[in-house]
Please model this.
Amino acid sequence: MVSERWHDQVADDHWRETSRRNARSVQTTVGWIFWDPGAVSRFEARGLPGPLGYIASRGAPLAPAGAEALTAAFGTISSVGIAITFDLLKGDVAAFREFWNLRDEAVDEGLHRYAPGIVDPLVEMGPALWSVVDRLPRLGRVLFGATVSMPRPRNPLLSGWHAVNAIREWRGDSHWALVASAGLTSSEASVLHNEWLGYGGDWLSKSRGQTEKEINDGWELLSRKKLAAGHRLLPSGLRLRQHLEDLTDELAALPWQLLGADLSTEFAERLEPPCELLLARVDETAGPNYQPASRLRERYRGPEEGAGTDAP
Model:
C-alpha cells in the first residue's frame, strides 16, 4: 500500500512538473504576438491602438456575448479598455473577426521571421494537439469553448499555433476559476500576482490598465482578509498566490496527460529553444517584465517550508 501511494505521488509530481514546464512554451508561443510591431501596425491601420487590438483579436470568439462577458473571461484586463474596444468597433462581431484574422497574418509572418525553428514542430505536432483540445472538458471554460468554436485554419502552421492557443485558454479559464473560488476580485488578483512576482510598484495592475482606485481597492480588500498590511503583502498572501499557481499546474496537467508522456516531452524539447527567441522578442518590443508566465521563477517558500524568509 505504501509503495502504491509513493508511485502515485511520483506520477502526480511528474505531471505537475510537465504542466509547469510546458506552460512556459504554451504562453510564449502565443503571447509574443501581443506586443509585436507586425500585429500592432496591422491593428493601428484598422483603427485600434495595440492594446485595444489585442483585446479585439483575442476576444473575437466572445464578442457576440458583449463587453461584460469578455471582462469576466479576461480576468484582470481593464474593463475600461474592453468597453472602449466595443464602443470603437460598435460591437460589430465581423470587425472583431477582422482583428482575429489580422493577428493570424502577423503570427504567420513573425514566426517564420523571428523563430523559424518553431515552424516544423507546430506543423508536425498540430494534429496531436488538436486531438487533445477536442477531448478537454468545456465545463466552466467559457473563453476556451468560444475559441475552439472558431474556424480552424487550413494553414498547417497557424493550425498548430491555434491548437496551442486553445490549450493556453483552457489553462487560463482553469486559473480564473480557482481565483474566483478563492473569493478574489480582479484588482486583488492583480495585486497578489504582482507581489508574488516580486515586481513591486503595482506594475502588473497598471500594465493591465487598472485605475488607481481599483488598485487601492485591491489592497484594501486584501488587508481586510489579513493577506496584506497597508501596501505590503503578508506571507499569508504570498502563500495563497503560490497555492493558486500550484493548483493551476495540477489542473492544467490534463492536456499533457492526454497527449502522453513521450509527446509531452517532445513538445518541451522542440519548442523551448525557439520560444527563447520569442521571449527575447518580448524583451525587445515590450520589456523584461512583460509576459511573466514565460519567466523562470522559484516557487514561493515560507518559513514553514524551510526557506527562512518571507520574501518572494
